[in-house]
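Fig. S4 source data, part A: sequence.
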Amino acid sequence: MQATGSTTVTLMVLLPLIGWRVYMRFRRMVGRQRLSKVRPWITLIIFPVLLLLLTLAAHQHVERLCWLAGAVGLGSLLGIFGLSKTRFEPTKKGLFYTPNAHLGIALSLLFVGRIIYRFVEVYAIDPAAPHDMNDFARSPITLAVFGLLAGYYVAYAIGLIRWRRRVLRAKRRREAVDRDVADDYMKEDKPTT
């Protein structure tokens, strides 16, 4: 009987986790969802940190950094475009938004395609070769895909935060006007002595 290799065990553990994350990402990028107070801020913290780490890992190869920077710029433009195609809904139950389905599907497929290619590259083409975390920063295509997604998510998160602030500011103004009108009404209604 042949012993199971550590890469096979790792793959068996990672595949369900990655499958679940891809499914959740796909659902989030396509369907209507409630705007979280925290999630955009987490995006604004995590993606720039990951970009910084990738920049440090690839700092000796300017051409890779150019791929990453170009993809972040393109992703930011896609984020702005995605915001223009997003349907925003301020309701009494909360703030909701529905991202553009076509853009969400395209980005999800790009993400899934790159993950599948990376698994094939690591586990099927040369499984005996040693692999480490720096392999991620060695591939300009991987850097470009990550940069595209990071730029998109950061720009989109900034847009969601700005929309939330505008809606809440407008709500506070309406409530202040309503209070002022009610106060004026109460003053007019009081009998003078």
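Fig. S4 source data, part B ends here. The chain has six helices and three strands.
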